Amino acid sequence: GSTIGIIGGGQLGQMMALSAKEMGYKVVVLDPTPDCPTAQVCDEQIVAEYDDQEALQALADKADVLTYEFENVSQEALRKLTHVYVPQGVRLLEITSNRLAEKTFIRDEAQVPVAKFARVENPADLDQAVATVGLPAILKTVSGGYDGHGQFDLNTAADVTNLKANWPGGILILEEKIAFTKEISIMVSQTRQGQLITWPISENVHQNHILKTCMIPADVSSDLNDRVHAIAKTIAEKLDLRGVLGIELFVNQETDQVWVNELAPRPHNSGHYTIEACNVSQFEGHIRSIVGLPIPTITLHGPAMMVNLLGDELLQARQAFPDYPEWHFHDYGKAAVKPGRKMGHLTVVGATGIDDLSKYFQTI
Ligand code: ATP
Ligand code: MG
Ligand code: MG
């Protein structure tokens, strides 16, 4: 059988590995944490840093196909590897690991709506950027941010003055603050044969900048639904995508507008519902795409809801689980519980399950 190598051993790698194993592949993971979530379900772990050239080459030597579960893989290290097949390629990482490159690609190459933005490197640039982008705006670090880390809200001129006095440093991007009524996301993939595959749109609610719940299908007009699927396909085509790409978008239902927020070159947290609610999950779709297998048109078994279990909620939900037989319970097997840390998730399919899960989460 063939072997799939995964760079990164978190929950995304774990669920990729579970799909790959089900399909009969051998899986090897590279991650510095012994017994990380992915290592718990795969055949072998190489314990090393993600940019350790020797360890990456050892992974490449063991694997027929190499993939990654996050965008901050060292591009330089990947380029130096020999005798390796990385179907997703390095360009996908170049674009998605840098918000400036990403927004430039979305605006100029894919030519789909995105917030106005400007590059900012020093306090003088910020004044210039505010003049073009306007206020309110959000200043973000161009790379490495997640769950809203490294973001500064700029609503007034006073906020701008204040930020200049407490300069964060690094390369930054100023983004127009979009007046959205909803946040949604869509997963897309492309097969080696060139078929573009999209999954149903999820409607996402965040708590303290961390994804909390997803409702599927998103409650949007059928016209907007079609436009979002078309946007996803255009982006996938322009990237010559392999594997799954998660696309986060903003929607304003009053003006009937949609904007792309950001791209993730991998399965996405808001696509976890696909494991139980679709004929082919985003993780199986990812594996199929990278190994060159076809993917059928995606169907949804019924309305679904996914809730992230953050910190202590994993234990609470585990205790409540016996009362809710329709819950699909996922425990990532992380050793340390930290507040806000994604420890697992719950998915339900069908109106009754959604009702019960919504009620349960109102009580805790
Ligand atoms: P993730 O964990 O999704 O990777 P991140 O740190 O990369 O998060 P973003 O997705 O860019 O951050 O932003 C986090 C949240 O902040 C968004 O989901 C949205 O609620 C809000 N936000 C970000 N950019 C904008 C914008 N330009 N206009 C309005 N709201 C925004
Ligand atoms: Mg992000
Ligand atoms: Mg985001």
UniProtKB/TrEMBL annotation:
Any single biological process term in GO: 'de novo' IMP biosynthetic process
Pfam families: ATP-grasp, PurK_C, RS_preATP-grasp-like
Cofactor (UniProt): Mg(2+); Mn(2+)
Annotated residues for binding of ATP: 99, 140, 145-151, 175-178, 183, 206, 261-262
Molecular-function GO terms, alphabetical: 5-(carboxyamino)imidazole ribonucleotide synthase activity; ATP binding; metal ion binding; phosphoribosylaminoimidazole carboxylase activity
SUPFAM superfamilies registered for this protein in UniProt: Glutathione synthetase ATP-binding domain-like (SSF56059), PreATP-grasp domain (SSF52440), Rudiment single hybrid motif (SSF51246)
Keyword annotations: ATP-binding, Ligase, Manganese, Nucleotide-binding, Purine biosynthesis
Pathway in which the depicted protein is active: Purine metabolism; IMP biosynthesis via de novo pathway; 5-amino-1-(5-phospho-D-ribosyl)imidazole-4-carboxylate from 5-amino-1-(5-phospho-D-ribosyl)imidazole (N5-CAIR route): step 1/2
Ranges of residues in domain ATP-grasp: 104-291
Domain of life from the UniProt record: Bacteria
Top-level class of the enzyme under EC nomenclature: ligase
HAMAP family: PurK
Family statement drawn from the similarity comment of this UniProt entry: Belongs to the PurK/PurT family.
Subunit structure: Homodimer.
Protein name: N5-carboxyaminoimidazole ribonucleotide synthase
Protein source organism: Fructobacillus pseudoficulneus
